[in-house]
Amino acid sequence: MKWRAWASENVDYLKVKRDLFDSPGQLPLDGSAHIIKDCGYIFIMRGGFDKRVNQETALRGSIPINRWLQLDEDPDAIYQVKEIYPRQGKVLATVRYGEKFLYDMPNKAAVILELGPAPSESKTFQSITGDQQKQVQIVPAFSSIKSKNP
């Protein structure tokens, strides 16, 4: 009931969709962006043909914060990214238009992120949650290139 109510409130965003990670099943992450003007939502799921294979792999999505997300082009804009599911309201990053947002995917089925203008006077930062010493598979959005390991 909670998510049905959320979807009803955000139906305009859900009507616009931009696929993030190539065609479904080809990369270990799948997802979509639902942006209107300068705010909206990003859905990320563990993907691939067999989700069980990717459950323990450390995956880092690399998402450019730019017109590819359907954002209005504004080189002076600063955006805040919050996780609204599963960690409701957790601020993950404050990034400038044109930068890449990096997100370490948890071993969960899916996450929902909220993107919007950052509060005035915000400083840019990114909170990478994964183990910095661990090998991480980087999965770039809007790329037909296979995901990369560092």
How are the SSEs ordered, and which strands pair?
Elements: H1 2-9, H2 11-15, E1 18-19, E2 29-36, E3 39-46, E4 59-64, E5 78-85, E6 90-96, E7 100-105, E8 110-117, E9 125-126, E10 137-140
Parallel strand pairs: 4-10
Antiparallel strand pairs: 1-2, 2-3, 3-8, 4-7, 5-6, 5-8, 6-9
Describe the model.
Strand 2 and strand 3 form a beta hairpin. The chain is 9% helix and 39% strand. With 150 residues, it is mainly beta. The protein has one domain: Sandwich (Immunoglobulin-like). The chain has two helices and ten strands, in the order ααββββββββββ. The strands form two sheets. The chain has a seven-stranded antiparallel sheet. Strands 7-4-10 form a three-stranded mixed sheet, with no helix packed on it.
Distance between the termini: 41 Å
Biggest sheet strand order reads 1-2-3-8-5-6-9
Integer average pLDDT: 84
Describe the global form: globular
Q: How many domains in all?
A: 1
Task: List the secondary-structure elements in sequence, H or E.
Answer: HHEEEEEEEEEE
Q: Find the count of extended strands (DSSP E, 2+ residues).
A: 10
Q: Runs with pLDDT <50, length 5+?
A: none
